[in-house]
Amino acid sequence: MSVQVSTSAATMTIDPANSAIQAVDVNIYYGSFQAVRDINLNIERQKITALIGPSGCGKSTVLRAFNRMNDLVPTARTEGQILFHGKNIYDTDVDAVEVRRRIGMVFQKPNPFPKSIYENVAWGARINGFRGNMDDLVEESLRGAALWDEVKDKLKESGYSLSGGQQQRLCIARAIAIKPDIILMDEPCSALDPIATLRIEDLMRELAEQYTIIIVTHNMQQAARVADYTAFFMVDDSRTGHLVEYGVSEQIFTNPKDKRTEDYITGRFG
Questions:
Q1: What is the pLDDT of residue 270?
Q2: Rounded to whole angstroms, how far apart are CA atoms 35 and 58?
Q3: pLDDT of residue 9
Q4: Using an 8 Å Cβ cutoff, are 67 and 61 in contact?
Q5: Which pLDDT score is estimated for 14?
Q6: Phi, psi of 256 (to 5 degrees)
Q7: In this predicted structure, what is the pLDDT of residue 5?
Q8: Which CATH class is domain 3-265?
Q9: Strand order in the sheet with 212-216
Q10: Residue 81 burial (CB count, 10 A)
Q11: Does the pTM of the predicted model rise above 0.85?
Q12: Segments in the chain below pLDDT 70
């Protein structure tokens, strides 16, 4: 049975069977400063959702709320609910480490460990108690990140020996090796050249066949190319971010319902 949730941005029809994760009335603070207010988002399973908007509008703050990365900031405080499999991940009985295992993260700049290519992929699985065939898992993960053919003969070499685009795909392989449900990507192409960017975009489309992907990007063309859904954020006079509009990407980019969305997409502000 689907239900409707009214938000400041829209009324969303939610089918629980297709929902990967939901933000319900989420407010996030850093000390006394409110970074985002009244965020309601339903992220659909095995789709790519892009978060766009001007700098400082809270995109990355919202993204990091989905796997409790904001907990690592001492002054951060999150109110509301993030529902994952029907459970609020901010409940006191929820293990944040387990949340981050189920909801992986790929950062803005490639950040391979100072280890071999093989160990970069194997490390997370090993510390999470993987007991299967590690060689098979490493190969499977590198294939899943479209990197296996490029590195299969140099698995003992340092991850730092790879190009920037290859390092980012290595970080994606590391993320999928622990079998997450959701992969968060915080501007994963901002440090890459156009060719490497297209490789990552192609990879995202392939990964979406198995994983739910949420991406923060400043590149609206990228969001229009790869995302099934797009959420547009902006800031109010108090510098607090809020959700303006959320919908199917084609509609957001060709027929936005809110004039502020249209103004941003057409370059009139931001």
A1: 55
A2: 6
A3: 44
A4: no
A5: 53
A6: -65, 145
A7: 44
A8: alpha beta
A9: 87-88, 76-84, 19-30, 33-44, 241-248, 229-235, 48-52, 212-216, 182-186, 103-106
A10: 16
A11: yes
A12: 1-16, 269-270
Give the pLDDT score at 141: 96
Write down the pLDDT at residue 150: 96
Distances from the Cα of 226 to the Cαs of 140, 157, 187, 232, 249, in angstroms?
24, 32, 13, 15, 9
How far is Cα 217 from Cα 202, in angstroms, rounded to an integer?
A: 15
Give the H or E element holding residue 82. strand 76-84
Q: Cα–Cα–Cα angle for 106, 171, 77, nearest 5°?
A: 30
How far apart are the C-alpha atoms of 267 and 224, rounded to whole Å? Answer: 15
Q: Which residues pair with 182 in a beta bridge?
A: 103, 212
User: Domain map of the chain by residue range?
Assistant: 3-265
Whole-number Å distance between alpha carbons of 243 and 174: 31
Taking the C-alpha atoms of residue 61 and residue 235, their distance in angstroms, rounded to an integer, is 13
DSSP result, 8-72: SS-EEEE-GGGEEEEEEEEEEEETTEEEEEEEEEEEETTSEEEEE-STTSSHHHHHHHTTTGGGG
Amino acid at 118: Y
Position of tokens 């509009």?
Answer: 245
Size (the chain), residues:
270
Query: So what's the pLDDT on residue 124?
Result: 86
